[in-house]
Design a protein that fits this description.
Blueprint (H helix, E strand, L loop, with lengths): L1 E4 L17 H8 L3 E4 L1 H4 L9 E4 L3 H5 L4 E4 L6 H17 L4 E4 L10 E3 L7 E3 L3 H8 L3 E4 H4 L3
Parallel strand pairs: 1-2, 1-5, 5-8
Antiparallel strand pairs: 3-4, 6-7
Length: about 150
């Protein structure tokens, strides 16, 4: 089973109420080969919502209490993103996931690069919260670009 960011499978769960649907991933989900998750929604955030980014570090720093997740007006969403990311990890374990394809750049799902917390679309090296949790469980995590060789 593959864990995939829900927005990549056609679920309109992004902050702006849209998706980033990929036809191949959508078909794999329809065939039961994919389990999807949106950590933001699992954590209780609404759709649509203000965008959120990690400020002060990356997902690892959030897990260590050294960084936090805030939305575009500065509201702290760290508890919601932590809860949703842990829910994603639980889903991965329940489904014996060995590979995750997650949406690049996001505070929860970013792989290798995430937004820097300035809300100016500036990227820094680092992983999102769910990505870090999955990697700690030896689950291979790739971005959609890496998965498709883009």
């Amino acid at each position: 089973m593959i864990l995939v960011s829900a927005c990549l499978t056609g679920e309109k769960c992004r902050y702006n109420g849209k998706d980033c649907s990929n036809l191949i991933l959508k078909k794999l989900k329809e065939k039961g080969k994919i389990v999807s998750v949106c950590p933001e929604v699992k954590g209780g955030l609404s759709v649509p919502r203000l965008p959120c980014e990690i400020t002060g570090g990356d997902g690892q720093a959030v897990l260590e209490g050294q960084a936090r997740v805030v939305n575009a007006i500065g509201k702290d969403l760290t508890p919601e993103l932590l809860a949703g990311s842990y829910a994603g990890l639980k889903l991965a374990k329940e489904n014996k996931v060995r590979l995750a394809v997650l949406k690049s750049n996001s505070a929860a799902c970013g792989v290798g690069k995430i937004f820097d917390g300035s809300f100016k679309e500036k990227l820094i090296n680092g992983n999102g919260i769910l990505t870090v949790l999955l990697m700690k469980e030896n689950i291979r995590v790739v971005s959609e670009e890496e998965f498709f060789g883009i």
